[in-house]
Hints:
globular; alpha/beta; binds 2-phosphoglycolic acid; 39% helix
Amino acid sequence: xxxxxxxxxxxxxxxxxxxxxxxxxxxxxxxxxxxxxxxxxxxxxxxxxxxxxxxxxxxxxxxxxxxxxxxxxxxxxxxxxxxxxxxxxxxxxxxxxxxxxxxxxxxxxxxxxxxxxxxxxxxxxxxxxxxxxxxxxxxxxxxxxxxxxxxxxxxxxxxxxxxxxxxxxxxxxxxxxxxxxxxxxxxxxxxxxxxxxxxxxxxxxxxxxxxxxxxxxxxxxxxxxxxxxxxxxxxxxxxxxxxxxx
Length: 246
Ligand code: PGA
């Protein structure tokens, strides 16, 4: 089974989100878990439009029950719309909003305590890769989030390897590069006795998903740009559904 996650980021108004969600109801369900992460303002419209097999994710969560956290969103608000996954540690939030590993760790523990599944994003910048530090950076992001984490029986974790240089640039990672990092992520997590599903994200399109599926040893994809087109996203879903089960 593959995961295919649409990260709509800060795009689409409510009517546009409803229209795109309606088109995605044609996505295949066998062999692929499709998940949509709309802007918060569209959660109600999208949850009312999606067929049951398509899941809903939040793009963020604040690690507190409720209270004076202006501009933030809590688990209680997300549960109203049957949100079951939460994207955490996206490089845009790390870079633009100053989210630290320590804060992401708090969000991760909170998310799991609410029975929601984190989609934890990790990845290195171009400079870090050029300096030969890609594994060191991703390893330290993983350890900061996972070391000593209590995993309840049912809980699972999705890790999205998203090289920062591949996000929104059209510069997709080669299947070999993605596969090497995916192996490193699995090894690092298993050293901490944590089972993870590993996804790839960064300029995934219908043109390149085939070779990533064939070579990248990944459990699915986190998709930004191509998830805003029903046509492209449905093509991605079809390719994931046809992929061999791992
Ligand atoms: P992209 O974004 O597919 O537009 O590169 C991926 C992401 O940021 O999750």
